[in-house]
Design a protein that fits this description.
The chain is mainly alpha-helical. The chain has three helices and no strands.
Length: 58
């Protein structure tokens, strides 16, 4: 694991950040957990990609 100083200047581009604190993300997480269970672990990049893929297909 890198320390904060070692990560200084790194940029990360993810499709989704679960920790975003805004009403839209809260509503999404509520719907996601209602559909897939309240005990679902962290909504990761892979989970979000799969979710989006199925929605595009549908």
């Amino acid at each position: 694991m890198l320390s904060p100083d070692e990560c200084d200047g790194f940029l990360v581009s993810y499709n989704y950040f679960e920790n975003l604190d805004n009403p839209v993300n809260k509503a999404f997480k509520d719907c996601f957990h209602k559909r897939f269970g309240a005990n679902y672990p962290n909504i990761t990049e892979f989970a979000m990609g799969t979710y989006q893929g199925f929605n595009l297909w549908a």
